[in-house]
Amino acid sequence: MVSALRGAPLIRVCLAYFTSGFNAAALDYEADGSTNNGIFQINSRRWCSNLTPNVPNVCRMYCSDLLNPNLKDTVICAMKITQEPQGLGYWEAWRHHCQGKDLTEWVDGCDF
Predict the structure, then answer these.
(1) Cα angle 5-8-11, degrees, rounded to a multiple of 5
(2) Which cell locations does it reside in (predicted)?
(3) Residue 38 and residue 66 in contact, taking contact as beta carbons nearer than 8 Å
């Protein structure tokens, strides 16, 4: 089992790989006009603002803030998402590629 200290980095590394390939500037357009933004591909329908009216903007930031190579805003927003009822389940990549998997290989050789 993954220790609590190592668990969070493992989750973030797996999620970042399968959502954006570790690309902090990744931007993907959905058919409904929303965007998936940054290394964790955080969607503008609920989590951030693209200046579209009537968007919840739960993270209280602009989606463009999530494209910054300084990941502070992105991590803060991702942490807010994980505190929601679905938690990591909001990410399809998490459900299909990371959830229930042994993630220790993602940080082999890293010293925490």
Answers:
(1) 140
(2) Cytoplasmic vesicle, Secretory vesicle, Acrosome membrane
(3) yes
Helices 72-82, 4-20: inter-axial angle, 10-degree rounding: 110
Tell me the residue range of the domain where 60 lies. 2-103
**Does any domain span residue 112?**
no
Is 109 within a domain?
no
- Residue 86 inside a domain? The answer is yes
Scan for tokens 């009216």, then name that residue.
53
Residue 29 pairs in a beta bridge with 35
| Residues 40-91 pLDDT 10s | 999 999 999 998 788 899 999 999 999 999 999 999 999 999 999 999 999 9
Residues 6+ apart with CB under 8 A from 48: 37, 42, 57, 59, 61, 62, 63, 65, 66, 77
CATH of the domain at 62: 1.10.530.10
In whole numbers, what is the pLDDT of the chain averaged over residues? 89
Q: Please state the domain count of the chain.
A: 1
